[in-house]
Design brief:
This protein is α/β, with parallel strands linked by helices and 332 residues long. The protein has helices at residues 11-23, 63-70, 85-90, 93-113, 146-165, 187-196, 216-229, 246-257, 282-285, 295-308, 310-318, 321-328, and strands at residues 2-6, 28-33, 53-57, 75-78, 117-121, 169-174, 176-178, 201-204, 210-215, 235-238, 243-245, 264-267. It folds into two domains: 2-178 and 213-238, Rossmann fold; 187-211 and 243-275 and 293-323, Alpha-Beta Complex (UDP-galactose 4-epimerase, domain 1). Bound molecules: nicotinamide-adenine-dinucleotide and 2'deoxy-thymidine-5'-diphospho-alpha-D-glucose. Residues 6-7, 9-13, 33-36, 38-39, 59-61, 79-83, 98, 102, 121, 123, 151, 174, 176-177, 183 line the site of nicotinamide-adenine-dinucleotide (NAD).
Length: 332
């Protein structure tokens, strides 16, 4: 199978590149990635010399770059995005451009290329906050931050290309991922980085917000299931069934690192903070997928991986010095 993956040098992308190369002997994987602060060729270090992998450095908003990279694709997995909620709160332009306009360029190019399937990776954030119960795929979209709104636009743009042009777009809405290579602006790797340095951990608000944690390897298997069995025009939640408050997650990180809870520092909340995400995963389960990695074991393994890759953490953080200084000024 010939894949085009956008965002393949980022967290989920680099894990999916490896998963495809390791599990499908005949896979040919083209990656299109702009190598923003979050994209890093070092994330693909051990597979870069595999002749089944072709790397295209380019922007998904650039029609020529997209046409070159997509030319041979049978399966498009669209992951490239500006993914950090806090950055989008500081300024939503990059998220609107990449997440919405970039998706439009990819969909338009796909009309000419006619891949067998276009997997449009959205997010559970398109539904907004879920104070109780769970959201099924029929729930109204109610994104509440600029990142999520741009992703919701892209989610429905994919659907519009299915309805209007018959493009075989399958949409996924995954829960919060964790695992190796996550850029350390996100809760888990950021807090591991800071705890290793005995620096305070800035917990937004009361820390009782709930996330459903999906291991990235389970997510990779879900994406392959959807590429093979997803019905065009349909959206699928990818739930993990691992709801945890941020404080519970943070205490687990501290416990694994042998660091004290006195590092926890309650700081000003994220504006518009979604206090809970929760998905009903029955539709994807009906295609035969279920998460396999147990939360506590997966999280402890991730913390150990991050602690063992301290140079990678330091170098990743160094690429965003200005962002961290601005966003956390007055918080820690
Ligand atoms: P990430 O930030 O780690 O990686 C994003 C990648 O996209 C980077 O390699 C970056 O260089 C690339 N990129 C950014 N802008 C680009 C552009 N204009 N052109 C080409 N490449 C560009 O993100 P991630 O966590 O791996 O997320 C991947 C996808 O999964 C995103 O679409 C995100 O919205 C979605 N998602 C992520 C999670 C999560 O918890 N990480 C959960 C649900 C959905
Ligand atoms: O739910 C899926 C989404 O998960 C993806 O679509 C996003 O791309 C991804 O970034 C993630 O968004 P979150 O906002 O949930 O992830 P983040 O790691 O930024 O935050 C997780 C929780 O931790 C959230 O409740 C905010 C809190 N937090 C985060 C940071 C960075 C803190 O309390 N302090 C922090 O410094």
């Amino acid at each position: 199978m010939r894949y085009l993956m956008t965002g393949g040098a980022g967290f989920i992308g680099c894990n999916l590149v490896r998963y495809l190369l390791w599990t499908q002997v005949s896979a040919q994987v083209a990656v299109l990635d702009k190598l923003t602060y979050a994209g890093n060729l070092a994330n693909l270090d051990d597979v870069l010399d595999d002749n089944r992998l072709t790397f295209f450095e380019g922007d998904i908003c650039d029609r020529e770059a997209v046409a070159d990279a997509m030319a041979e694709a049978e399966v498009v997995v669209h992951l490239a995005a500006e993914t950090h909620v806090d950055r989008s709160i500081m300024g939503g332009e990059a998220a609107a451009r990449t997440n919405f306009m970039g998706t439009q360029v990819l969909l338009e190019t796909a009309r000419a290329v006619q891949p067998r399937v276009f997997l449009n990776v959205a997010t559970d954030e398109v539904y907004g906050c879920c104070p109780q119960g769970e959201f099924s795929e029929e729930a109204p979209l109610n994104p509440r931050n600029p990142y999520a709104a741009a992703k919701a636009g892209a989610d429905r743009l994919g659907y519009a290309y299915y309805v209007t042009y018959g493009l075989p777009v399958v949409t996924s809405r995954p829960a919060n991922n964790y695992g190796p290579y996550q850029y350390p602006e996100k809760l888990v790797p950021f807090f591991v980085y800071r705890a290793l340095r005995d620096e305070p951990l800035p917990v937004y608000g009361d820390g009782l917000q709930v996330r459903d944690w999906l291991h990235v390897e389970d997510h990779c298997r879900a994406m392959v299931t959807l590429a093979e069995k997803g019905v065009p025009g349909e959206a699928y939640n990818i739930a993990a069934g691992n709801e945890s408050t941020n404080l519970t997650t943070i205490r687990l990180i501290l416990d694994e690192l042998g660091k004290p809870e006195s590092l926890i520092r309650y700081v000003e909340d994220r504006p518009g903070h979604d206090v809970r995400y929760a998905l009903n995963g029955a539709k994807l389960a009906a295609l035969g997928w279920k998460p396999e990695i147990l939360w506590e074991e997966g999280m402890r393994r991730t913390v150990r991986w991050l602690a063992a890759h301290r140079d990678w953490l330091e170098q990743s953080i160094a690429r965003s010095k200005e962002y961290f200084e601005q966003w956390y000024a007055g918080r820690v």
